[in-house]
């Protein structure tokens, strides 16, 4: 069964993708911003609207200030009279959902789209509303507070620093069962959702990522992650998270991390993981046999993790 699962995963190609420039404030509406990424992805993948069988979007109502926030982009992602799934988590989780849709034979080509607009409201303040309302919200605890606590627990002065700059942006990726020569293909995926309450888990480790990576490694047939990857693209919002990522994934300490610049160059909420998948695919495509590890994260101090292993054919 495991071998069959790995074969299905290898059949999912990253045909193409595009992302908007991350800016402090994009004056366009969400649909206008998303349309740029979608049009660019379809062009990069050399497919037409009619070639897309289904759409998976990633957005969070709380951050957009909209109920059912995917409705704002229904038309521009081409989801009118087509199957659409909305994932209220990082864009990498949306990509994994699409991978399984394709692996199951439900669809041949799926468009994955993620968007975030941090300029619309104080992002970190909003995350306070996602915390426990009885004990933590009255104290003003938000995701930024928990990340600071995590950094102090690790007690590595070389890795304590500012968080990535948040802005507005969108990313779109086309995944397909059709695998062109030289394409990057997704051979393994894994995801994990750890305990939400920060006091219910060990913040000094990313055990959820360890479990997610382990599932992806088994699926892709990765025996030694220390030597398996030509590049890794982690979703690290803070410098201290890089150490957590390396430890949890057991990748080699000399494996290049974020040669594309990573999130510290600027990112948008929800979009990060999908941009890491696109960066990982572009880093290895055209180099048969080379593997890359892409990662998405969400929630307080890395509560949720999603991993994809990409390999060049």
Please tell me about this protein's structure:
With 313 residues, the protein is α/β, with parallel strands linked by helices. It has two domains: 2-119 and 162-312, Peroxisomal Thiolase, Chain A, domain 1; 122-159, no CATH class. It has ten helices and nine strands. Strands 3-2-4-5-1-6-9-8-7 form a nine-stranded mixed β-sheet, sandwiched between helices. β2 (54-58), α3 and β3 (84-87) form a beta-alpha-beta unit. α4 crosses α10 (272-284) and α7 (207-220) packs across α9 (240-249). The protein is globular.
CATH superfamily of the largest domain: Thiolase/Chalcone synthase
Main β-sheet: number of strands, strand sense, barrel status? 9 strands, mixed
- Molecular shape: globular
Number of domains: 2
Helical proportion?
25-40%
> Radius of gyration over alpha carbons?
18 Å
CATH class of the largest domain: Alpha Beta
Structural class: alpha/beta
Mean pLDDT, all residues: 93
The rounded distance between the terminal residues' Cα atoms is 23 Å
Which blocks of ≥5 consecutive residues have pLDDT under 50?
1-10
What fold name stands as the CATH topology of the largest domain? Answer: Peroxisomal Thiolase, Chain A, domain 1
